[in-house]
Amino acid sequence: MSEPIRKIMLDEKSIPTAWYNVQADMPNPAEPALHPGTLQPLGPADLTPLFPMELIKQEVSTERWVEIPEEVRELYKQWRPTPVYRATGLEKLLDTPAKIYYKYEGTSPAGSHKLNTALPQAYYNKAAGIKRLATETGAGQWGSALSLACTFFGLECVVYMVKVSYNQKPYRKAFMQVYGAEVIPSPSMRTASGRQVLELNPDSPGSLGIAISEAVEDAVSREDTNYALGSVLNHVILHQTVIGLEAKAQLAMVDEYPDVVLGCCGGGSNFAGIAFPFLADRFQGKKVRLVAVEPDACPTLTKGVYAYDYGDLAKLTPVAKMYTLGHDFIPPGFHSGGLRYHGDSPLVSQLYHEGFLEAQAYGQRTIFEAALAFARSEGIIPAPESAHAIAGAIAEAKAAKEAGEARTILFCLSGHGIFDLGAYEAYLSGGLKDVPYSEEALAKSLNNLPKV
Ligand SMILES: *Cc1c(COP(=O)(O)O)cnc(C)c1O
């Protein structure tokens, strides 16, 4: 038998020329987004204060392939195609008959998959004459990616950063400032939404829902400014499909096809990015399981409800049908800031609801155990978010061992954890606890869903 190929590389000519749009193949059309004021279906004009027309079109497009602009593809070449690794070290550690592969998105200069969508978003805004982008960031990865993308396209960037992360991760802030962004801890006094939260709770740790309200308010209040979101929206999901398209080509190079594909799931973009190109095959009758892995402290798919809800606390964003914990649900402050969103991608939600996707949830101690096992066997220190996918892959590999069967596992390693060493330190010193969400708070926030 030949040695397994450890690292499967494509050359830059193999970067996809088009993104895959799952809306072309869904058995039921995507549920429409609603206007937050009237709760009537949104028209394109409702979104123009926030997004350029090209992104609005992508939001509702049912074209199967959307061409990647040449300028964006040129910039992708800086780090794409990303490698697919065979996790030989992890396989040995687990003593499993399963083959484990992972697509490593942490090789991007911003450290995660988020640059895949930050670049096209900055590109389309620039092309539409916009001068400045406002956004929010949780753990800091999205803010970092957008800061860099804005610099490449000569745009200003203002980032509302969830306060608990701002305090936990000072170097993330510096990272964004190096790329030229202005970084503001949220909730802030800058916006009416922020001031309202601070009045009620001066010590609010912030949440993505609050930070989104602030960024949207900033964007709506200025002609030269648009808003950019790092996950959830259909156009973001679209851009992230470069991950799965490349991974499929890479596995084909070693005559492999996965039995199961996993990704961690916050707003759903890296999971959908790796999973949807395989879902396309499943729509054609191919057998492949697609598993989203989320934190049990913010269990949107596994414990939330499928309903229309606002994307933010102040109800400024469109109302979308999605799995949600309620727009005023504030998850406890655990160490995977990128997974603390109350909602989920409407596309992921609908396809999960229709039975095409699976979901699992793990506590953060399990997550850090998996992260350490991975770092010590594969050498890469994963982002705590990405470690959810690792935990899911380990569970699959163990199940394969128990069943005594071969199984090919592919997961997305969405980013590195070099800025998360504070969390690792807490885990290593025994200071990291599983933080349950409050059942009572969840029931209360689910009461506040819009009546559609
Ligand atoms: C933002 C982020 C996530 C969560 O966002 P998704 O849209 O669910 O992918 C996961 N991993 C990393 C490294 C991130 O930066």
UniProtKB/TrEMBL annotation:
UniProt-listed InterPro entries: Trp_synth_b-like, Trp_synth_beta, Trp_synth_beta/beta-like, TrpB-like_PALP, TrpB-like_PALP_sf
Pfam annotation, one family: PALP
Pathway assigned in UniProt: Amino-acid biosynthesis; L-tryptophan biosynthesis; L-tryptophan from chorismate: step 5/5
Residues the record lists as N6-(pyridoxal phosphate)lysine modifications: 114
Reaction(s) the record says it catalyses: (1S,2R)-1-C-(indol-3-yl)glycerol 3-phosphate + L-serine = D-glyceraldehyde 3-phosphate + L-tryptophan + H2O
Cofactor: pyridoxal 5'-phosphate
Boundaries of every Tryptophan synthase beta chain-like PALP domain copy: 78-415
Swiss-Prot/TrEMBL keywords: Amino-acid biosynthesis, Aromatic amino acid biosynthesis, Lyase, Pyridoxal phosphate, Tryptophan biosynthesis
Enzyme class: lyase
Domain of life of the organism encoding this protein: Bacteria
Assigned EC number: 4.2.1.20
GO CC list: cytoplasm
GO molecular function: L-serine hydro-lyase (adding indole, L-tryptophan-forming) activity; pyridoxal phosphate binding; tryptophan synthase activity
Complex and partners: Tetramer of two alpha and two beta chains.
Annotated family: Belongs to the TrpB family.
Role summary: The beta subunit is responsible for the synthesis of L-tryptophan from indole and L-serine.
Protein name in UniProt: Tryptophan synthase beta chain
